[in-house]
Amino acid sequence: MFVLFALLMMLQADICYCFTFILIILECTSYVLTTKGTTFFPYRNNRIDQEFCSANMLSSKGGKVLSSTAMRAVVVSKFGDESVLEVQRNVPIPTVESGEVMVKVAAIGVNPVETYIRSGNYKMLPKLPYVPGNDISGTIVAIGANVTKFKEGDRVASFMRVKSGAYAEYCAVHSDWLMPLPNDFDFRKGAAIGTPYFTAYKALFLKANAKASDVLLVHGASGGVGMAACQLAVSHGMKVFGTAGSKEGMDVVLQQGAERAFNHKEKGYTDKILEATNGHGPDIIIEMLSNVNLNRDLEIVAPKGRIVIVGCRGTIEMNPRLIMGKESRVEGVALAVTTKEEFSEMNRAISARVKTGRINPCIGKEFSLNDVQRAHREIISNSGSKGKMVLIV
Question: Do residues 156 and 351 touch, judged by C-beta distance below 8 A?
């Protein structure tokens, strides 16, 4: 009887040892599979996951998602002044759907239109709450299904279809709306390409049908879009004039290749522009503040000239006879209604210029993501733009 009892005890111990050994094997297998990119075992706790997950990445349904579930981002919960911009640290990281990539953001371009949207004074308003912005540059860290043009590690920029908003540490972007960046291209400059250069290209070539023989006036040439228009026009062989609101801004305009720069705060500056064109007037005017300058533009534009409105901060009363007398044309441009075909054309042209060095964005003031409120104050209230404003993540 005693011997039988002893045998049973030994057998029970062996079973315990075996069960313990099996648990150890399962744990090791879980670790190996996790680091290879497969889904981790459900019984593992968060401490173990954080300890063993490899390089922040886990596979998920054919694509990849970040092992972390939260990120730092700027959230707008109500429309208003810059105080509604709230930096939150627990914003869910967006998921990557088919055709999309996840970009780890390095720099963000700040545009005046984002202040109009934030204040609620814009025709197309997002649903609250939202993360502002569209212009980003960074590195692809995850690829969704059916993405063939890009791979992890690629350096990219985007300004369209950033579905989760740009003012964040991570963004999900459809691969059709990405622009590749050279390996040695500064991320700050990458964030300054999107809205400024694509807007300028669309205004010049898709709206105004610019030719090398045209004389261009960029009314407000020291800002992001203005400098982009100067560079694109100069590379196209056009004669370029630009205006700015300060001596420093005028110097920046000349550095972009403009033949002459004028201070649009000086009385009678439009007479100087007419004199510089031998009384003919500019064939094309790219206008950044139409509620202030449109009537002046109509007075000095050349016969059959084209005025393309890029920016406006209010209403204006104008005389249509100014358009009729010269048979001039006034058009608006908005990137939000850009088609895929238009984007493809612009992307090819701008990417080629980036590779050859004919596009070199000028960076103005830089702010951290945490200092976003100050950035929004300054982009509207500053006395004179001297380059593209960016947020550094």
Answer: no
